[in-house]
Amino acid sequence: xxxxxxxxxxxxxxxxxxxxxxxxxxxxxxxxxxxxxxxxxxxxxxxxxxxxxxxxxxxxxxxxxxxxxxxxxxxxxxxxxxxxxxxxxxxxxxxxxxxxxxxxxxxxxxxxxxxxxxxxxxxxxxxxxxxxxxxxxxxxxxxxxxxxxxxxxxxxxxxxxxxxxxxxxxxxxxxxxxxxxxxxxxxxxxxxxxxxxxxxxxxxxxxxxxxxxxxxxxxxxxxxxxxxxxxxxxxxxxxxxxxxxxxxxxxxxxxxxxxxxxxxxxxxxxxxxxxxxxxxxxxxxxxxxxxxxxxxxxxxxxxxxxxxxxxxxxxxxxxxxxxxxxxxxxxxxxxxxxxxxxxxxxxxxxxxxxxxxxxxxxxxxxxxxxxxxxxxxxxxxxxxxxxxxxxxxxxxxxxxxxxxxxxxxxxxxxxxxxxxxxxxxxxxxxxxxxxxxxxxxxxxxxxxxxxxxxxxxxxxxxxxxxxxxxxxxxxxxxxxxxxxxx
Length: 486
Description:
Blueprint: E1 5-16, H1 55-67, E2 71-72, E3 75-76, E4 78-82, E5 92-96, E6 102-110, H2 113-116, E7 121-133, E8 137-143, E9 146-150, E10 157-163, H3 170-187, E11 199-209, E12 219-224, H4 227-246, E13 254-259, E14 264-270, E15 280-281, E16 288-289, H5 292-300, H6 306-317, H7 321-327, H8 331-344, H9 347-364, H10 376-387, H11 393-405, H12 411-418, H13 426-439, H14 441-448, H15 455-465, H16 472-485
Parallel strand pairs: 12-13
Antiparallel strand pairs: 1-10, 1-11, 2-6, 3-16, 4-5, 4-15, 6-7, 7-10, 8-9, 11-12, 13-14
């Protein structure tokens, strides 16, 4: 951030809802079909075709509203937003009007200490979340000299979530977007695919002198579909606006696009005002009325929310805050951890294995936790053997886990078949330690003289004398006692 300026940022996030059909017709809401195969008179905007509201899309909107503590409006209406574009077959978009089904929510994100002067969470206001339909998709690079239009996406249900201008840096904007993305995915209302456009945003940014209250002139950067691009586009736009004003120029209210290859925003068009869209009530749809029992049914159906889950893990298993956030990477990953922690009874150890060895294996492969071949109960058995000191962590990681993945049987059967059970008999280990100390009088004398780093050498010699099957923790305990007496 350039000294002397404060950024004011608000994000408008478009969330494609995971309904089976489109917002106002029965066409399939599915990505990847051949062009223009999921269309009908309604989503093509043919004369006489009448829309019918998707009830499941309404339920999903209620889920989001309840999850962010918003007000659910008992009555809201649909409007026609007029604009002409090749992939908008009707010439207008059906969207909600001045009142949205969801209004006045809050989403907590980490505050950016570089701009706020202190660390800690910040509550970002969600002004509204309204239902609307998506437009089709234009392709300008498939046929030379022509633009092609695919209307499969036309009419797909969208929930547009309008954030208040409460963000103060590109980092906060990225954190907000990530938190919202995780929420809609865990709610099950969006698949969250950034590549497919299921989750995308427009960023509004202006600058004002530090300490000022009035907002500056707002610029909108359209269709950002990655967390990285949001940070980069906002950082560039902040620098551009600051340089412009410091040079005596003025910022123009406009829409700009992000060119990722050039690393810059580019002007697209002068920003429209509401009057340019000629909003008027949709005559073919009645008002949307939400009954109290519908709200309560949506509340009862809410899953455990991500932050509540992370808090439970911290309190029940002693999982660190950063570990909890990583465990929340996907609903499937979080569910696997819950099942693993319950099965082994060792939540902290379960987190260590899942974030360590299992994540390493997943990163080396091509699938997610959904394709991991070990059921939580199978991995839990291995963790219990390590935690009860039946086998060492090294043997579990290097020998038992690969054998489990190869389908050689249960963890206990593999340990028995390979003779991997470690010696935990104190008397036997005391005898091994005595042998090692007698065989290495020099290092013993040096340790007594203050060179404690050589203790590791004696531990290694004891483990070697035990054929790698003695309990390392017990070896350290016995060795420390023996050295104290030597």
